[in-house]
UniProtKB/TrEMBL annotation:
Lineage, uppermost ranks: Bacteria, Pseudomonadati, Bacteroidota, Sphingobacteriia, Sphingobacteriales
Gene3D superfamilies attached to this UniProt entry: 3.40.50.2300, lambda repressor-like DNA-binding domains
Regions annotated as coiled coil: none
Organism: Sphingobacterium hotanense
PANTHER family for this protein: HTH-TYPE TRANSCRIPTIONAL REGULATOR GALS, LACI-RELATED TRANSCRIPTIONAL REPRESSOR
Name of the molecule in the record: LacI family DNA-binding transcriptional regulator
GO MF entry, a single one: DNA binding
Keywords: DNA-binding, Transcription, Transcription regulation
Superkingdom, taxonomy of origin: Bacteria
The HTH lacI-type domain, residue ranges: 6-60
Keyword Cytoplasm among record annotations: no
Length: 337
C-alpha cells in the first residue's frame, strides 16, 4: 500500500487497535496511555499520515478551522504571532483563515461575524484601535463561540488572554533612557482605547516616578491608527519638534519604523542627539538609522500559547472553562555603539 493512502482504519488494523483508540491517540487524548500514543504517533509519522479534516469534521460536527483577526498582517509583530499560531494549528490538524481590520471597528465586526456564520470552531483576535463596542463579541461568547484574545484585549469579556508584560516593558524602557542621561522623555503611543497602550502608558509613568522625573502630558503624542497612517506620525513628530526632549519611547512596531522615517524628513530633529527606545520585532533592528534600543516581544510564543488555549477550549467544549491570562516577557536589546 502506498504510504500516501493510509487511513485511520488501516493504521488501527496494522497496530491491532480500535479506530477510536488510534483517533484519540492522534488527538493526544488523556484517555490513552503514553505508550499507546507513542506507538500510534511513531507509525503515523513513518507512513506520513495526515487526518482528513473534512471527513473528521463531518463526523464530529466541527470544521477544524479557526479564524485569526489582526490589524495588519504585514506588521512584523503580528506576522510572527501568526507563525506561532500556525505551528500549533498545523500539528493539531486545524486550518487557519486570516483577516486584517486595518484598525477599523466596522471591518473587525464584518470579519468576526463572517467567521461565525461559516461555523469556524473558534477565533483568535487582537482588537482594532477603533473598537469600543464589544457587545456583539459577548453575544457570540454566550452562544458558545470560543474566542481567545491576544496583545490587544477587551477589559470585560470572559475569555482567555495572552498579553505582553507591557508595564514592565515601558518601565524598563524609561529606566534605560534615564541611564543614558535623558531628563525629558517623550512618548509616542497608539490609540488610547487599546489595552496595551494603557498598560504601556502606566509603565511609562511609573518609570518616570521611580526616577523622580515629572510626567509632562505635552510630551505624549497619540496615533489613533498605531502608525498605519504615516501622516499621523508626521504630525506627532512636528509637534514634538517644537518641544525640548532628549529621549523618546516608541510604543509599537509601526510607530518605531514610522518615527525613524519621519525623523529623516525633519531636519531639526535629525540634528538633535535624541536617545530612542522602541518596540520592534524587526530582524533589521541592527541597521536602523539612527540606531535604537529595541524592546522585542515574545510574538511567536504569544501565537503558540493563544492557539493552544483556543484548541483546548474547542476540544473541551461543553465543559466549564477556567479562563487564564498569560503574561509573556519582553527582551530589551541595547544597540551596539
Amino acid at each position: 500500500m502506498s504510504q500516501d493512502h493510509y487511513t485511520l482504519k488501516d493504521i488501527a488494523k496494522i497496530l491491532k487497535l480500535s479506530p477510536s483508540t488510534v483517533s484519540r491517540a492522534l488527538r493526544d487524548s488523556h484517555e490513552i496511555s503514553d505508550e499507546t500514543k507513542r506507538l500510534v504517533l511513531d507509525f503515523a509519522t513513518k507512513v506520513n499520515y495526515r487526518a482528513n479534516p473534512l471527513a473528521r469534521g463531518l463526523k464530529e460536527r466541527k470544521s477544524y478551522s479557526i479564524g485569526i483577526v489582526v490589524s495588519e498582517i504585514a506588521n512584523n509583530f503580528f506576522s510572527q504571532v501568526i507563525d506561532g499560531i500556525e505551528s500549533v494549528a498545523y500539528d493539531k490538524n486545524y486550518q487557519v483563515v486570516i483577516s486584517q481590520t486595518n484598525e477599523s471597528a466596522e471591518r473587525e465586526r464584518f470579519h468576526v461575524e463572517h467567521f461565525y456564520s461559516r461555523s469556524m470552531d473558534g477565533l483568535l483576535m487582537a482588537m482594532s484601535s477603533e473598537s469600543s463596542d464589544t457587545a456583539y463579541l459577548e453575544g457570540m461568547i454566550k452562544k458558545g463561540m470560543p474566542i481567545v484574545f491576544f496583545d490587544r484585549v477587551p477589559a470585560t469579556l470572559q475569555s482567555h488572554r495572552v498579553i505582553t508584560d507591557n508595564k514592565r516593558a515601558a518601565y524598563e524602557g524609561v529606566q534605560f533612557l534615564v541611564k543614558k542621561g535623558c531628563k525629558r522623555i517623550a512618548l509616542l503611543s497608539s490609540s488610547k482605547k487599546l489595552s496595551n497602550s494603557k498598560e504601556r502608558l502606566e509603565g511609562f509613568k511609573l518609570g518616570l516616578i521611580s526616577q523622580h522625573l515629572e510626567f509632562d502630558e505635552k510630551l505624549v503624542q497619540y496615533c489613533e491608527y498605531g502608525g498605519l497612517k504615516q501622516s499621523e506620525i508626521d504630525q506627532a513628530i512636528n509637534h514634538l519638534a517644537e518641544l525640548d526632549y532628549d529621549g523618546i519611547f516608541l510604543s509599537g512596531d509601526k510607530l518605531t519604523t514610522g518615527y525613524l522615517q519621519a525623523l529623516r524628513r525633519n531636519v531639526r530633529l535629525a540634528k538633535k542627539p535624541i536617545e530612542i527606545v522602541g518596540f520592534t520585532n524587526s530582524n533589521l533592528v541592527d541597521i536602523f538609522s539612527p540606531g535604537i534600543t529595541a524592546i522585542r516581544q515574545s510574538a511567536f510564543e504569544m501565537g503558540k500559547r493563544a492557539a493552544e488555549l483556543l484548541i483546548e477550549q474547542i476540544e473541551q467544549r461543553g465543559k466549564e472553562t477556567n479562563f487564564k491570562t498569560v503574561v509573556l516577557p519582553v527582551e530589551l536589546i541595547e544597540r551596539e555603539m
